[in-house]
Amino acid sequence: MEGFSIKIAKLESTMSLYGREVLIAFAIVVFGLILIKWINQALKRVFMKLPISPAKGATVRNIIVVLMSAALLSFAAIQIGLDARPVMRFLAILTLGAIGMVVVFRPLIPSLPFKVGNTVKIGDLLGKIEATTILNTRLRTFDGKTFFVPNRKILDDIVINYHFSDSRRIKINVGIRYDQDLMKAKQVLESIMIEDPRVKPKPGPVVYVLNLTKNCVELGGRCWVDNMKYWVTKCDLLEKTKFRFDNEGIVIAFPQLDVNYYNKSESPVYAGQSRLQGHGASFESTTE
């Protein structure tokens, strides 16, 4: 008990002498760490808008955080009453070591190929990233399901990040009948894309003849839009294509099946005829 009392007495004596400086230093550290966190978040938003890779941006931010943390600790140590010169030397050594660790080992540490808010496809899962931890990633699919995917599985699998690039190409494939005006259909499809303000002028929209199938001439419209506007723009362009083709009198093709019916006592009616006779009845070609 006497030893414990002596320790309490020494603590009271120390607090009476340095208590004010310790409290000020503690407050400096707390508010400084909060400020460093805000600055780090602000730098993260700024680097997202700059044309640099996420890995380089993270490395620069980590170095800045290390330097600010070293300056904060130095100021707090001096506020307590420690000699400034050895404190600065010690923290300078720690800072240089930390920066060296960041520069050397940061590229070797595997990082997830997305960030919170990105729309990604991981294996068979398609959805938006809601949160990431050291062990797993929380992904919410567009039908409302929440999946917790282990990060080791993500790093070993193919991941499609639909928000990694700024723009994305839209494909509008439509088939027209062989008896339709091909050049008119190409011009109409191209004008639909050009007239939409969300479609980028460079590279400009183009229309190709993709294939000559059994049932149609397949046209392919291609245009570029901002990544965030991809899905809505594609749906709108498909709807506009249907309405515009109908108004222009361009018939969109669909699969057909010709049915031939004949009596054994009569000669058969061969495929390719649009109207078929049999037993005095008339038959039209049907569709499937």
What is the 3D form? elongated
Number of helices: 6
Low-confidence stretches: 271-288
Give the strand order of the largest sheet, numbering strands 1, 2, ... along the chain.
4-3-2-1-5
- Which strand-content bin applies to the residues? 15-25%
Radius of gyration: 35 Å
Give me the CATH architecture of the largest domain, please: Orthogonal Bundle
Report the CATH C-level class of the largest domain. Mainly Alpha
What class would the helix/strand composition place it in?
alpha+beta
Number of strands: 12
Largest sheet: 5 strands, antiparallel
Number of domains: 4
End-to-end distance: 97 Å
Helix content: 40-55%
Mean pLDDT: 79
The succession of helices and strands, N to C, reads: HHHEEEEHEEHEEHEEEE
